[in-house]
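The methods section describes the discrete structure representation at length, but only in general terms. What matters is that the chain and its backbone geometry are given together, residue for residue. Nothing conveys this as quickly as seeing an actual entry. For illustration, here is how one protein appears when written out as sequence plus structure tokens:
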Amino acid sequence: MPELSFNADPVPATPIGDMKGWRLHIQCERCRRHSVLPLDYMAKQHGTRVRLIDLMLRLRCDGFRGAGKCRGRPRLVTLVKVAIYGKSARKLRQVTVVDTSNPWPRPPLASRSW
């Protein structure tokens, strides 16, 4: 399986089996829970040929909110390339994949017609 070259950014159509050493940092839109999922583990669970976009569409929060589970969608998804040295880890690269906190810039208040 070919791994991504060092300077290539992953795209949504990239199979997760090709992204060794990458992790998903996810923040829930409802409960703001932060989770870290290694893509090596996700490739074992869902298969190596699953595309990154298909995996992100499946993601739901597993935290508790009130009486039941949150089941919220990701608000912020960041791919992080990690180098592990013994018990420590260092971020090599970081790519924001989804950021719904500010989907598009709004025009200034003066130009709005109320």
Q: What stands out?
A: The longest strand covers residues 74-85. The chain has a mean pLDDT of 84.
